[in-house]
Amino acid sequence: MSIAETASPSLAEADRFRATLRNHPAGVVVITASVEGRPVGLTATSFTSVSLAPPLVSFYIAESSTTWPALRRAGEFGVQLLTEEQSDLADRFSRRGEDRFAAPTAWSRGPSQVPLLDGASAHLVCSRFDTRLIGDHWLVVGEVTRTLVLDDPRPPLVYHRGAFGGVSALR
Ligand SMILES: Cc1cc2nc3c(=O)[nH]c(=O)nc-3n(C[C@H](O)[C@H](O)[C@H](O)COP(=O)(O)O)c2cc1C
C-alpha cells in the first residue's frame, strides 16, 4: 500500500470531522493575559463554563499556537465576550504577524493587569486552575475572580459555518 493510499482515508476523515463541526455555532471570545508586562491574546470559540462552585470556565488552545508559550506562563487571564459589532476584533486576534493590541484595538488594564478589550459585553478575570494537554490542544481551566458586565450590551458575536454572525430571539 502506498503512502498516499494510507494517508487519504485519515485526511478524508479529518475533513469530515471539520465539516461536521462547522454546523456547531459558538460564541466568540478573546482570551487575554499580561506576560512580563506584554499583552497577549487570541480569538477562541472553545470557551465554556465548567463549574458554579467554584466558578470555573475553560477554553482549549492549539499546541501549535504561537501565543501559547507566553500565555502558559500567565497565572491570570481575561475572557472578553465579544458582541456582534466586534468581528473585526475577532479577525485581528486570529491573525499571525500582527500587533493585536495596537490601534485600532481599544483596551485597558483591568484587575491584575489583565488586558480588557473595550466594547466586550462582559469580561471575566480568571486565575489559572488547571492546564492539561488533551489531544493536540491544551485545556485551560480558570477560576473566575472578577466579572465586569456592560449594562446594556449588544447581542453576542457567533461563529458558524466559517462566518461571523449574530443571534436573534425567536420571539
Ligand atoms: C472564530 C475563531 C475561533 C477560534 N477558536 C480557537 C480556539 O478555540 N482555540 C484555538 O487554539 N484557536 C482558535 N482560533 C484560532 C486562533 O485565534 C488563531 O489560530 C491563533 O490566534 C493564531 O495565532 P496564534 O499563533 O497566536 O495562536 C480561532 C480562530 C477564529 C477565527
TrEMBL record:
Residues annotated as domain Flavin reductase like: 21-166
Keyword Oxidoreductase belongs to the record: yes
Keywords: Oxidoreductase
Record-linked InterPro entries: Flavin_Rdtase-like_dom, NADH-dep_flavin_reductase, Split_barrel_FMN-bd
Entry keyword annotation includes Nucleus: no
Listed SMART domains: Flavin_Reduct
Pfam families: Flavin_Reduct (PF01613)
Database matches in SUPFAM superfamilies: FMN-binding split barrel
Alphabetical list of PANTHER family matching this protein: FLAVIN REDUCTASE (PTHR30466), FMN REDUCTASE (NADH) RUTF (PTHR30466:SF1)
Protein name: Flavin reductase family protein
Classification of source organism: Bacteria, Bacillati, Actinomycetota, Actinomycetes, Streptosporangiales
